[in-house]
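Need residues for this backbone.
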């Protein structure tokens, strides 16, 4: 029998594994090289063990959320305050507030009667003027963290109503912001529309339209166009109250989807703008994984050849984004390390 030493010299091929973490201006390249040979035949490696992680160029916490959280940190006696719902739709923020001693009300149970403290913190999503008056009449001291862009939408709705417009609010009926936006409007003088399919002819000669601040811009424009088609007789006025941070994140996602084959979206499960990012990716045929923290990720969700996009809703903290990015990077490095260790000669 021919000994192994008498066989033809082994031929080698180097295989490169690398992970690229791309953040527009920063690129890190991690390389692993090793030869592949088996039974004195060259193994032509066609697959490369590399996974790209590309960050959206606009994502994460907006100034309204940032300022609301900052306001709570200035409060010296949290046990004297009840948060009127969720400060922002981020369970990590809610847990931290409760740890610090704030009382919180479920958004479905918000009423003055349910409050046991002397002060109430109005969340970033805002409330109606009627609800505000009820709290003040009950003797509550109000700490207001309403996002200025939500307040702008309130003002737009009220201005349209004062000018005699039938007000259409584009948004989710069950969302706390929409309940606040419509809370000062007369029941027979407004409508809430979630999709273009719900649009119908209205008897009003003047129709004013606003949108929940976290609405999808392209969907809102589709609904506005449908209202125009169904109500050709009416004077229609659209005030685009979708906030700029939401628009920036939606447009950044559009650019990101062109470069990736799978998406990770970070944000609260009750966050409307986060869910919209997930839904849009799936509509475009890109699988999307919605997580609130890195603990929800599993390595089997990804393949070494994936180009993974990473984005986050407007209530997602920077440290959460960083921890999810680190988890994705570690998945790849662990995979490459196992591949390297499995090669024997």
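Answer:
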């Amino acid at each position: 029998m021919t000994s192994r030493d008498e066989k033809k010299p082994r031929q080698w091929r180097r295989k490169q594994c690398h992970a690229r973490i791309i953040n527009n201006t920063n690129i890190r390249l991690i390389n692993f090289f090793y030869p592949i040979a088996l039974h004195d035949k060259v193994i032509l490696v066609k697959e490369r063990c590399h996974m790209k992680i590309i960050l959206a160029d606009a994502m994460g916490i907006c100034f309204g959320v940032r300022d609301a959280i900052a306001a709570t940190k200035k409060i010296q006696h949290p046990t004297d305050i009840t948060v009127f719902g969720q400060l922002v739709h981020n369970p990590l923020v809610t847990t931290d507030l409760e740890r610090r001693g704030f009382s919180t009300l479920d958004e479905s149970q918000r009423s003055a009667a349910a409050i046991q403290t002397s002060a109430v913190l109005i969340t970033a999503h805002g409330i109606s003027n009627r609800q505000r008056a009820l709290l003040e009449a009950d003797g509550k001291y109000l700490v207001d963290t309403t996002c200025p862009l939500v307040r702008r939408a309130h003002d737009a709705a009220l201005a349209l109503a004062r000018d005699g417009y039938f007000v259409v609010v584009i948004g989710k009926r069950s969302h706390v912001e929409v309940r606040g936006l419509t809370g000062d409007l007369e029941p027979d003088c407004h409508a809430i529309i979630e999709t273009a399919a719900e649009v119908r002819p209205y008897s009003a000669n003047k129709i004013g339209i606003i949108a929940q601040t976290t609405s999808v811009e392209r969907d809102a424009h589709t609904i506005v166009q449908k209202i125009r088609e169904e109500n050709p007789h009416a004077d229609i006025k659209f005030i685009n109250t979708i906030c700029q941070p939401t628009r920036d994140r939606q447009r950044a996602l559009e650019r990101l989807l062109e470069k990736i084959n799978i998406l990770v979206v970070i944000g609260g499960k009750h966050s409307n703008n986060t869910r919209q990012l997930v839904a849009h990716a799936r509509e475009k045929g890109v699988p999307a994984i919605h997580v609130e923290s890195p603990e929800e990720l599993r390595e089997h969700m990804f393949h070494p050849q994936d180009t993974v996009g990473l984005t986050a809703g407007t209530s997602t903290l920077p440290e959460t984004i960083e921890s999810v990015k680190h988890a994705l990077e570690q998945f790849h490095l662990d995979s490459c390390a196992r591949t390297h260790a499995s090669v024997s000669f």
